[in-house]
């Protein structure tokens, strides 16, 4: 049985690139990516499925727990929830609930300027069934308004519309501040600032490489 290697979460406001960073972490370090948003979509959609712990997604995302399946970064061969998880914890209450489940070794916080986030979110369209995200500025679908894989229509979420974005970002900032301060006080917070994920990623990769060996070479990642 493999031993624990690392437990971590990736924090960041809406549109900060958490999902992209976690997908790269998963690929470069041999992990799986768990998205709290995807768990909730599948659970609410009645699609069933299981958390990597073997529990139904609905129980992993039960409201009483304060959020979805807790965040663990482990090798794919390790027991219990082998994943890079985004979207949790979002509040101080969720962070304290997570304390009762596992002790985090590392917290990655993505700091992106407000104007950059506003532009990203306003240009974002999604495939409702899968949660696949497109950005009309730098990651558009092959056919405008159509999902690349299914051919189904894309939609713009109500909270991605320009008039809703500012309120979302303010709400995140208020909720996340005590969470970030908590992890900062524990000495496990690592913050990365910038306007492009491609420029932030090498620093995240270097940090994680100092904790666990990558499965891809520098050129491959």
From TrEMBL:
**Record's CDD domains?**
ADK (cd01428)
Q: Low complexity composition bias: which ranges?
A: 54-68
Give any Pfam family that matches.
ADK
**UniProt-listed InterPro entries:** Adenylat/UMP-CMP_kin, Adenylate_kinase_lid-dom, P-loop_NTPase
Stretch list, region Disordered? 45-68
A molecular-function term among this protein's GO annotations: ATP binding
Keywords, A to Z, come to: Kinase, Nucleotide-binding, Transferase
Q: Which domain of life is it from?
A: Eukaryota
- Transferase as a keyword of this entry, yes or no, is yes
Enumerate the spans annotated as Adenylate kinase active site lid domain: 124-159
The family classification in the record reads:
Belongs to the adenylate kinase family.
- This chain's protein is named KAD4 kinase
In its UniProt entry, the species of origin is given as: Menura novaehollandiae (superb lyrebird)
Q: What is the lineage of its organism?
A: Eukaryota, Metazoa, Chordata, Craniata, Vertebrata
Q: Which gene encodes it?
A: Ak4
